[in-house]
Amino acid sequence: MSTLQKRLQSFLDSVPDGTKSYYALTILLGIDITPQFSCFSGWIGYTNDTPPREIRQASFVIPDRMLAAWKVIDEPGMVVNTSDDLALFFVCGGHAVVEKQLAESFVPELIAPFVAVQEGEWGYINPKLLPQSAMQPAPTPKLRMSIIKRDEFKCRICGRSPKDYGDLELHVHHIRPWAAGGVTEERNLITLCHTCHNGLDPHFEHSLFRLIHPIEATERAVIYRQKLAEYQAFVAQQSESGDV
User: Fold this and answer.
1) How many CA atoms lie within 13 Å of 223's alpha carbon, on the beta-carbon side?
2) Which of 3, 78, 226, 230 is the right S-S partner for 29, CB 3.0 to 4.6 Å?
3) Distance between CA 111 and CA 104 in Å, rounded?
4) How does DSSP assign the chain, residue by residue?
């Protein structure tokens, strides 16, 4: 076994130190073909923008529970206890619980406060990681049609379709309203007929998130592994070109 393989195996076998605190960080390849960093975070305030955006900051996790949660969804995480572990984490990517002092000393920018928008039913994401169109109040024609196709050309509340009701209009609706900080992306958009859309009261009906075709856990894990492989290929390419 080579020295690198031994280091990697030692890294994979690491366990959290019960006397220390940890952050949960993730590294994958973003939509712009650059590394995308995210963290488990908590709310600390709002911006003065219109609509207002949340300000969040990395928060501590219970490392054993975090690792168990990642394992359940088939996205196993790593434990970063040393600077060597941290270097390997940046090579391998994926999920990791990172010891507090290491994170604060070597990657303070990854745990600093950041502006966030809600993504889907529960998630949060830095708007810089979303396509520019997600920050516009109306979907592009291409996105609108992709949502209608995803929802099988029918209203997700009543099930009616224009092919059966000639006077029916289909609307693409923001589940979390734009004015309340919602974004224009597929996990926040749903197809409704004009009758159901006009009848929404309140306009933000959280249960609509559950009417969108969910991504199955197995599919989510496949997407994660694909993004992880893309990140590792990116790091290898950068290493070969001498950029890292």
Assistant:
1) 9
2) 230
3) 8
4) --HHHHHHHHHHT----TTS-EEEEEEEE-TTSSEEEEE-EEEEEE-SSSS--EEEEE-EE-HHHHHHHHHHTT--EEEE-SHHHHHHHHHH-EEEEEEHHHHHHH-HHHHS-EEEEEETTTEEE-GGGS-GGGGSSS--HHHHHHHHHHTTTS-TTT---TTT-TT--EEEEESS-GGGT--SSGGGEEEEEHHHHHH-SSS--GGGGGGS-PPPHHHHHHHHHHHHHHHHHHHHHHHHTT--
pLDDT bucket at 217, cuts 50 / 70 / 90? low
Specify the residue for token string 């893309």: 230
| Separation between Cα atoms, residue 226 and residue 235, nearest integer Å | 14
Q: To which residue do tokens 């366990």 refer?
A: 15
**pTM of the full structure:** 0.79
Q: Which of 142, 147, 199 is nearest to 174 (CA)?
A: 147
What's the angle, vertex CA 151, arms to CA 213 and CA 136, rounded to 5?
95
pLDDT tens per residue, range 148-187: 999 999 999 999 999 888 889 999 999 999 888 899 999 8
